Amino acid sequence: MVANLSIGVIVLLICTLSLLFSASIRRDPEPTRSSKVINVVEELWESAESGGWRPSSAPCSDWPPPTEETNGYLRVRCNGGLNQQRSAICNAVLAARIMNATLVLPELDANSFWHDDSGFLGIYDVEHFIDSLKYDVKIVGKIPDVHKNGKTKKIKAFQIRPPRDAPIDWYLTTALTAMKEHSAIYLTPFSHRLAEEIDNPEYQRLRCRVNYHALRFKLHIMKLSDSIVDKLRSQGHFMSIHLRFEMDMLAFAGCFDIFNPEEQKILKKYRKENFAEKRLIYNERRAIGKCPLTPEEVGLILRAMRFDNSTRIYLAAGELFGGDRFMKPFRTLFPRLDNHSSVDPSSEELSPTYDGPSNFANNLFGHRLYYGFRTTIRPNRKGLAPVFVAREKGKTGGFEEAVRRVMMKTNFGGPHRRVSLLNRFIRTHGLSVSVK
């Protein structure tokens, strides 16, 4: 059964839904630095204090429902991976609201790397999606035909390539003008095509309503995820690690030097075919936190934070590039590994597996904040880079303490100020680790 579903869907469900079962244990709101180091593992299994903050996605009392007659139909093609597409769906709903348009059920690309062609109908509960948003936007499965004077006419959507991070004004001028002229527009591609920073709380709340309430996975996927999570939790605490060390991310990052000549050839070919040309120097990329952490580096971070080899880890990852030589050091540090295959509900027992910015990590982090400030570890790759470089040069003394110094400056999932777009561009966080 697992094999028939997208790995991305299963992994997202396990990491997202399992947070709902995490224990809500209170922690000392202001621990001393020494107590942080001594009790870091115990604290990380707990949930952070809310500080009185709570989810707020409900619209204001004077939020008007969509009008009976809209300005036309909006089609979008959501490209990228599952989580990038999920963000695009949220933006599509908001774009439809901004233009007073009827949204056609978003189209999901068959991802070129994961080869997932499930589509919106195969992944999400469409009836729930439409019903949840009925007071926000009108949604239809397809553009209906126009019947006039006994004749049937099909409406052909006018295709537009929207600019990246387009402001609201673009939708109210260029896009809306085309919609009124052609009755329907088709925005493609639609990844990151609406500005994230919008000075309108109601629009941001609508995004939250879509992401955290309207987008619900289909029942059979939910049941599968629940079964897997139950099986993982039956043996106590477990940690979910989103280990982003697959070919597409490595090619995108341009961090090739740690691979052999044949592997570098493969990565460079993939990058040339899928990403824009760019000057890439490994040491420079690593120093600014642009290179994904290797599995061994991930293991060393967790060890420095006092997680031992008895820690159970669910590995959320596809096929790791470079094979077992990269995974072996991690498995040596943490032998109790599971993945989506090893916890198939049809199996008798749990069996061990040897198997960048990240849309998955950002989406998961948002869910864990929204549903109760669950612990999420997001290593600062830029801050850790000089620590690992020093270790590679033989300076191993004080390594774990240096790692802890960097990590203790990290927010582990409690309330924190929203990071501005500029600061988010400057700061680089990578791997996402979710503690259950």
Automatic annotation (TrEMBL):
InterPro entries: FucosylTrfase_pln, GDP-Fuc_O-FucTrfase. It is found in: Membrane. It is a single-pass type II membrane protein. Keywords: Carbohydrate metabolism, Fucose metabolism, Glycoprotein, Glycosyltransferase, Membrane, Signal, Signal-anchor, Transferase, Transmembrane, Transmembrane helix. GO terms for molecular function: glycosyltransferase activity. GO terms for biological process: fucose metabolic process. Pathway: Glycan metabolism. Residues 1-22 form the signal peptide. GO terms for cellular component: membrane. Belongs to the glycosyltransferase GT106 family. This is O-fucosyltransferase family protein. It comes from Brassica napus.
